[in-house]
Amino acid sequence: IIYKEKGDLDKAEEMINKSLEINTLLEKNAGISNNLTTLGSILQTRGELDDAIDLYNKSIEISKKTNSMVGMASNYANIGIVLQVKEKYDDAEKMHNRALVIYEKIGRLEGVANQYGNLGNNFLGKGDLDKALAMYSESLRINNHIGSLKGIAYNYGNLGIVLRTKGDLNGAELMHRKALEVSEKIGGLKGVAIHCGNIGSILLLKGDIEGAEIMCERALRIDEKMGHIEGVANQYETLGDIYNSKGELDNSEELYHSAIVLNKKLNRSKKIAILFGKIGDIKKKKREIISASEFYRKSYEIASANDFISIIELLEKKMKDLK
Known about the structure:
The protein is built from 17 helices and no strands. The protein is an all-alpha fold.
């Protein structure tokens, strides 16, 4: 798990496979189930989504045999998250509701809260902002009830994302700053970096370029110190957006390329597609139309291969506008 957090997926897989081998020899079903789940999360991070689902399903089957309700619920949730990435939101909702029913049945409030959060993410992906807001609010209520500061910070952040999508930038900034305050209180550096980055994005939209850059640079320093590759990639992208807005197109493009390199290590196909599209936008600004078309094409190919419908629709419009 430590290697996975650091982005060393090969080493993480090696360690888990050794653990799986031992648990299989000892016929420890609980250990085997946990190992399969962790392997699934590694494949999910790599972007091998169908294989990840297969491993989560195998873990569920073992959990059924051992009557591990938590094991079943957690993997139904994992499958739901993968299906969200694949933009199969209706199927994802079914998985999250299965997990929710189990957590409610066994009275595991932390799991219930997490599932309302996952349902919120799913509705956000579908564009149903009011339902997303309702789910996050319920998750926040439960986390407040059980005193989960990590959950409280998580939901403040999610509420900020919904409000940002609705165009309420002041409300969004307030939510992200609340999330940051809680994360700082509990010493959650990863959360601090995420919320600093989100605040930076909001400030960019509000036209506070200097403030945005300060927040994103703080997030980047934390992510680099932690060796959190995903976070570093995200901050490169946001800083690229900042330089883009400042008219520093070469610096922006360089940061987007750096983000692509890191996202390739993590097999984050959706992010790579988005970044190729952003480079295409820069090329268009530079009036390098042939190059812009090439980067749009790269983005379109990745989006088409993974059925990222929203990206495909956006690129079709951009490519049409080039002509």
